[in-house]
Automatic annotation (TrEMBL):
Residues 1-10 have a biased composition (Basic residues). It comes from Puccinia striiformis. Residues 14-26 have a biased composition (Pro residues). Residues 1-60 are annotated as: Disordered. This is Uncharacterized protein. It comes from the Eukaryota.
Amino acid sequence: MAGGRKRTRQKSPSPSPSPSPSPSQPPDSNLDLPTEPSDTRTQPAGSVDETGPSELNDDEQLRKLVISILIFF
């Protein structure tokens, strides 16, 4: 069983290089960043209260996706 755990550790380094290419690609991150602030800017100050629940909705959607994926498997 210890051998199996060691194999999992070897897999962990492979995901580490994936985050490094992310910073290497500034255009992708820039495209994602401007979209979020642009939405907040378009919304008036009064809608700031709505941004709170919207974030909760995003979290709920993520949870639903994760649950659906887990159930799918």
